[in-house]
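Q: How would the structure tokens look for this protein?
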Amino acid sequence: MPGHQSIEDLIGGKTKAAPSNAAQDPTTSGKVSAAFSKKMGEIENKETELETERSASITGAPYIDLIKFPVSQYALKQLPLERAKELQAVCFYATQEEVRIGAIDPQDPDVIALGESIAHEIGANQELYTISERSLNRIIELYKTLPDIKPISKDVEIDGEELARIQESVTDFESFQGLFDEASTTDLVTYIMGGALKLGTSDVHIEAEENGIVVRFRLDGILQDAAILPKATFKKLVSRLKLVSGLKINITTKPQDGRFTVKMPDGDVDVRVSTIPTIYGESIVMRLLVQNEQIMTLESLGLRGRAYDQLKTEIDRPNGMIVTTGPTGSGKTTSLYAIMRMLNKPGVKIITLEDPVEYKMEGVNQSQIDHSKDYTFAKGLRSMLRQDPDIAMVGEIRDIETAEIAIQASLTGHLILSTIHTNDAFGAIPRFMSMGVKPFLLAPALNCVIGQRLVRKLCTLCKEASPLEAKLQEKVNTVMAELPEPEKSEVAAMEQVFYAPKGCDKCNEGYKGRLGIYEIFVVNEAIEKAVLDGQVAEYDIRRIAIENGTVTMVQDGIIKALLGDTSIEEVYRVTE
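A: Here is the predicted structure in token form.
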């Protein structure tokens, strides 16, 4: 048959007749058998690779033979061995610009998600390839070449004695600076965390400047310089923080996000880490989330009077939406947790979607969204509703998809708690409308809107009475003249004295702690009618709400200033 090859041809051409005694020579027989097996193995391998290449042309993922491909240890480290075996996929090439994944089935959704996840973490582009089982096994074998390194714990541990020493040493920023005189790199992280927790810091900023490193603490919402470090320590400090946060140490030109936990005797502190490149080095910001911190009540947050009674009525309703508004850092999530604290009872199922989970609450099912895995607020909310919750808390409504699902849920027997970014409560309805929400769905779904800000509380030990300047007093009088009853009568009965900060060794420039100032308007028939009639400008909503007795944030703040809780300057700082 033309083109046909015999077995003899395949192993090296036609064979000559061997001497009769050669058939009895085991050495010769073994060599022929080995050569035959080797040749047959090569043929099978070739056919396997050809079959894989044909399969690749169908799937669209290009074929690659990895038998002799050089694979770096850095590429192997991007994917754990067990995960590689499970997905039958390997990372065979990885740089800061490109990631290449080879898989038996590159169309497997888990493989696609894996490639996207690795590429997102490095900040690179990714490409999927089709490989044979032979190539897969060869790369799996290469994992044996990786050095056996003990995993680094992503925790910073502060033992009781060390914490007590730090807290005893740190009383103000000057004493905090003194800790760094002879500190090692490892001690730097411990001292920064210990000092931040002692001073009640919510965020730690580490910033490289031309002549040194500045450590800043955000105390009661105000960012303040806490310490200056030698520039020589910066790279070591950044590397240490990246190491415990699970960030790439060698990537300095792209933003990264990570986290670690501070292990302390009386409870853990979750630390969320963010880095961005700057002209003098990377800027690092750490958000401290104290897990053993007591969740506050609405009363302790500063809600009072008729506004508190109205909100409590809306909280007790079995369905609808309660939305908090305000800029970042205005305490919206804290208010939602205070509401959930009231609702968290044995017969009630509460599920949350958060980014990140800031407080851990027993009895509540808390879920962390993950954009890298396409687990968004919208997709999470849709899945959450299949869990049959009574109450759902959605960390933020930022798009039409999430808004529509939340509204439909509130109309079908669920109480939905959420936040939206607007300047005040009266801007919430226009914001929903600008997203594309239909008025006839929004009006009956929305129960009430809470607008809020956080103001610093005056130190009770050193605050002092202080008369207002004439212009400021006139401004206050104008605002309070519009106060509705019964609040106007209540204010008239108060002593008309305002207080100012002085400062002492127990406080921070005359302030210690924070409380909220609020405006709460209930969506009543007048508001519903306005929405359905198309009167959804912020001005219209504000006018109708005030006509129906809503106390604005500025008015609430002035009342709290008269009570001696804060200063007039603080009220106008956060509301203007």
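Residues 483 and 489 are 9 Å apart (CA to CA).

The domain at 298-575 is CATH 3.40.50.300 (Rossmann fold).

Upvote if useful.
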